[in-house]
Amino acid sequence: MEKKLAKIKVFFGDVDNTLLVLKMYDEQGKRMIGAVQYDDWLKYNIDHNAYQACIPPRGVYDLVNILHHKQGAKIYGLTECSNSFEYNSKYNRLHECYEGIFQHHGDLISIDSRHNKVKIMKMIAERDGYAMDEIMFIDDSYMEIMEAFEAGILSMHTTEVMERFMGAWEGDKKN
Question: What domains are there in the chain, each with its CATH number?
Fold first, then answer.
């Protein structure tokens, strides 16, 4: 694994339940869970900073920091957004949580369908001259992980990243 990680020059991470653990609360302070109708989601995003309580999972946070700060890898978020309020809320929280990483809106890529993630990664790789084995992708969906793996991209499920890398950034900073 260390040899594969050492080759990584660009990293893509899904946002919802990968780069950020979803923690959203209604007006009564109760945690919101599950899908809502589009108009309800739009209103929630307009009335609230929907992602303000979301946090990065520790292992994901550690991996992203090691790749960016130690190896100089470019970091991107990939996400489906239904409106600009949602996009800006995600971007702002990523910017707050991942210090020095999400500095420009281009660092968070909004896509129209989660099934286009591999296509976007390939297009960016072609544009910027990355080989497929220089890309890492993490997501909480096994379907997207398998699509990326089949394209030659180092791919891991969020849970595997949390298990493998939790505490790694703190340990790396001490060395």
Answer: 2-22+55-174 (3.40.50.1000)
